[in-house]
Design goal:
The protein has 564 residues and is an alpha/beta fold. The chain has 17 helices and 18 strands.
Length: 564
């Protein structure tokens, strides 16, 4: 319809009947019944643009609400999944400490094993390195030939090697129950013991056997016991009762890890005997006279390489007890057991490695460590050094203590050691019956004059029978013996006119600690920077169980130190 005005001509009348239709006009201000009036505030083209913006705004709000709702549902779903199936988080690695243990004898192995087992329960990790100067572990009870291998009679590997029990007696493990029980727990084994028959011990004055006793004391025949009582009086049964005082097996097996030696002695009930001279202890027990010089003194010399007049009462009673049970029982193998224990710890072992010194040094602005210097193993030239957080000295080598304070060095210096020689030899027959009367063990009286051809030999003892294969292939039964002496014994053995077919001799540089009565006891801890030593326990006594206990005490102190 056109937007401009038009003029219509309307006829005067209609051909149809009825009224005419209402007038019509296209103009907006005019009203008709057929069209309602519309009023526009703006042009028609502006309405679609405004509606689109509003719609988009509402749509954005709706999408935002929906997104927030979906995010909320997602979070709820994650919480439900976590509650039903919690996922594992990766824990932070445990703190790691490097520990050097110098000496792979019973004390050093005890410390390494204790730290290894304790690490998991305290949430730390120990990287442990064992240093051993000899070719094999086991301390001074492990003998090695020139090639670093175990010692075999006749150098014949078809023979049984010489073991620790050949040196210290068949009751070595039975007499040290703390070590035995600990090894059983570690290895999951049970040690069975067999009782040996009694043995005869002869006491030699340089010319003949002047007296005989039976070992163990409890198996002495009635006739022999009465004869001893006739000769030595009441000292015989009083000495038998005294030797029982040296039986610390139950007390050591249950001892707590007390780091203060004074309190440790109190818990073991040995505080007074450690501080008392042996002669005072003998007087208080009513033991004296010829029994001391002819029976007790040779036993002490064999066990400690010291005179009765020099030692503490505790050392005396322990040595008497050890000699009484030395061959009472068999069972287990000390060195084999130690090797098995080391295998369970997974520690790094450096054998044939001589540690030359230790020193605490600053290795960076905020970090310090112990530098352990050692000679390269296998004869390689040049010294080496490794850094460690903590150091445990389990060997009686005082050159290593220069890194400690002056006070600690003085405390450590109260302990000194003396060497001993052990010699194994074979003979085609037993010791001459006209001189040694077929006894299993000969102890030498300490009253031998200096310069005597046998002076310094303290014991000759039968070890076991061996089979020797001659050059022609013939197999012959021979006899393995042991000699303990203060010095080289080859020439002295020749004075006995023995027909020796094979001989092996070793020097044990720190075989025996001097067990004087002590008034001042060294600490286990030598430095607050992380240095300990196990030989401090030698102020009390020196046994496998004492060493094993010392290793555990020091290891527990290391644990406490890293948890500070």
């Amino acid at each position: 319809m056109a937007r401009y005005p038009r003029t219509y001509s309307i006829p005067a009348s209609s051909r149809r009947g009825g009224s005419p239709p209402p007038a019509y006009t296209p103009y907006p201000n005019e009203q008709t019944p057929l069209f309602k009036q519309k009023t526009y505030a703006q042009s028609d083209s502006s309405k679609p643009r405004s509606s689109l913006c509003l719609s988009l705004f509402y749509l954005a709000i709706q999408l935002t609400i929906i997104s927030l709702f979906l995010l909320f549902l997602y979070k709820i779903l994650l919480l439900i999944i976590s509650a039903v199936s919690p996922h594992e988080t990766i824990p932070a690695p445990p703190p790691t400490y490097s520990v050097a243990i110098i000496g792979a004898g019973p004390a050093g192995i005890s410390a390494a094993q204790y730290l290894h087992r304790k690490a998991g329960s305290i949430g730390v990790r120990f990287n442990i390195t064992l240093f051993e100067s000899t070719p094999s572990i086991g301390g001074q009870l492990a003998l090695n030939d020139s090639a670093g291998s175990p010692v075999f009679p006749y150098n014949d590997r078809t023979q049984d090697p010489i073991i620790a029990e050949d040196i210290a007696g068949a009751a070595l493990m039975w007499g040290n129950p703390r070590f035995t029980k600990s090894s059983e727990d570690i290895l999951g084994v049970e040690t069975e013991f067999s009782e040996l028959p009694s043995q005869q011990v002869g006491y030699f004055d340089g010319e003949r056997i002047i007296r005989q006793t039976t070992r163990p004391y409890s198996k002495t025949p009635t006739g022999s016991w009465l004869g001893l009582c006739w000769t030595y009086g009441s000292s015989v049964w009083r000495a038998g009762a005294m030797s029982k005082e040296g039986d610390l097996r139950d007390r050591l097996a249950d001892s707590s890890l007390e780091s203060d030696i004074t309190q440790l002695m109190g818990s073991l009930g040995v505080f007074e005997p450690v501080q008392e001279y042996a002669h005072d202890g003998l007087d208080g027990r009513g033991i004296g006279g010829a029994y001391v010089t002819e029976i007790l003194a040779p036993q002490v010399e064999r066990a400690l390489s010291q005179k009765v007049s020099d030692i503490s009462t505790l050392a005396m009673v322990i040595s008497a007890f050890q000699e009484d049970i030395a061959n009472a029982y068999v069972g287990g193998d000390l060195l084999d057991r130690l090797e098995q224990i080391v295998a369970t710890t997974g520690v790094t072992i450096k054998t044939a490695t001589e540690v030359s010194g230790i020193k605490h040094e600053e290795i960076s602005d905020d970090e310090s460590a112990w530098l352990v210097k050692y000679d390269a193993p296998g004869g390689a030239s040049g010294a080496r050094a490794e850094a460690f957080d903590k150091v445990v000295i389990a060997a009686p080598n005082f050159d290593l203590y220069r890194a400690a304070s002056v006070d600690d060095i003085e405390a450590a210096s109260v302990l000194t050691y003396r060497p001993a020689h052990v010699t194994f030899f074979t003979m085609p027959s037993r010791l001459s019956s006209d001189v040694f009367q077929d006894v299993e063990q000969v102890l030498f009286l300490e009253k031998q004059e200096e310069g005597d051809s046998l002076g310094g030999i303290r014991e000759l003892a039968f070890v076991r029978e061996v089979v020797r294969v001659a050059d022609d292939g013939e197999r012959k039964m021979e006899y393995l013996y042991r000699a303990l002496s203060d010095g080289e014994a080859t020439e002295r053995l020749k004075q006995l006119n023995l027909e020796v077919t094979w001989l092996y001799q070793a020097r044990l540089d720190n075989a025996y600690p001097f067990l004087y009565p002590f008034r001042r006891f060294p600490p286990f801890k030598l430095s607050e920077k992380g240095l300990w030593w196990t030989p401090a326990i030698h102020a009390i006594a020196s046994t496998v169980d004492m060493s094993w206990l010392a290793g555990q005490i020091v290891a527990e102190e290391v644990v406490k130190d890293v948890l500070k």
